[in-house]
Amino acid sequence: MNIPRSTNNMATVADCPFRSCDFLKAADVMLHGTVLADDSTCHLYCGVVCLPGQRLLLADFSLNTVKLYNRQTGEILSKSEELNPLWGVCNIDKNRTRIAVTLRNGEIQIMSVQATGPTPYIRSLKTFKTSLESCRGVSAIPNQDKLVVSGISGCMQCWSVVSISDEKVGTIHKICEFGGFGYSYLASSENERYVYISCYADKSSDTGVYGYILESGEHIFTYKRKDLSWPRGICTDKRGFIYVCNQHQNIRNIHQLTENGEPVMIFKLELLPDPQAICLDENQENIFITLWGKNQISRFRIMWEDHTETCQACEVYEDNGSKQSAHDGETLTQTEKMAEMTDPAGPIHLGESNLAKSNDFQGSVRKRVLPPGTKYHVFFCYAILDIDWVRETVHALERDYGFVCCEYDRDNTPGTSLLQFVSDSMKKAYKTVIVMTKKAFQSSFVVHEIQMAMSRGFSNRKAFVVPVLLEDCEIPDYLSVLHYIDARDPKRRDIWWPKLVMELAAKEI
């Protein structure tokens, strides 16, 4: 598969056009049996790995130990001896009996893990020095008994492949300059073809997510955003998606990307402290996130379909180990569960024409859920000479994104007054797209439609109107107060089209 190079530096979350899944907050698990040195109150788990048997491995930056927990109760089951200052941790084998721990002095620690049974343990097998001055992120290549490691070498942040058996470091690939401060987290794709690195650098222009081809070291993408100023933990799933933790000023979120670095969705974590490390469980159903300064793990259920179920997972484990239900079996729809994280149109599967190229997502797109009291997601207000553009847009929105659209040339009922049809349809539509062209503003009928839409929006104080500028024209004063989508250049469709999709899916304000 050829992956195009791309650099994304979009300004806002609203620029992300696609949604593949939702996160449902499932539980906060308090970690028991942890005593910090020198009475420190700062907890920092910079590495996390899920193991079979409801087990969780954590790399404790504060105490330089690796700890094994029951991920349901938060009970500590075992811990390693104190190591040199550590950073990352990963499974080495598919049977999950060996782990690798990166140390900040440039060493790698190989350890044996017994996660289940009557006597769980974590034991050191060997330690070896690499040619890196400091090792940070780590991921395994199980079929080759190798590791992919990010770290620092000289004046650069870099990554390399390290052989476990002969302890040799391969070619060192530069990520960015290192001026005295910076760190990185690393993940490899499930198919072991790509390497993804979340990197915080001295220069803000170097901070972002980087993608490389594992075998050749070729750089394939850089993902940068203004709201990705502090990227941290990173992981991948079997579908090829990438998940990156981020803390940006007062914003905490997870960026979901495709394997070629295109944005899929940003999940807000506004009620959580700063997210640090991240991993998926073995069934790819839950994401676990460690929190800076907190001795707890947050678990999120990944919801790949829009469905209704009994919310039995919303549980919080307190320090005393007691379990408290958040909903007591209350039946909630997916949209109700997600609250601020779900747009009112609901999540959809990605079709073949969208960013995800996995076979799991190819096929038809399900219709989006309509907001209560509506019949359409979108009503189009346009001049008859612009009908070709409208038809093409309607077709794409319905086919690829699951919107239900209304345009009167297609949907008008014979014998119905055109003016009455427009009025009724506009009231039943969640949003109205105004196609701005010279012909539209020259038509008294279209101008009347626009004024109806504007009046509806102002009277309800909600963002019902989405102006789209299709050609150079003089915009009336009553529309000039609104931001519009500039669609004049067909060659820049990759810029304005995602904005249109997200504007149509956005919540009312």
UniProtKB/TrEMBL annotation:
The TIR domain, residue ranges: 374-504
InterPro entries (alphabetical): TIR_dom, Toll_tir_struct_dom_sf, TTC22, WD40/YVTN_repeat-like_dom_sf
PANTHER family: TETRATRICOPEPTIDE REPEAT PROTEIN 22
Name recorded for this polypeptide: TIR domain-containing protein
Protein source organism: Sinanodonta woodiana
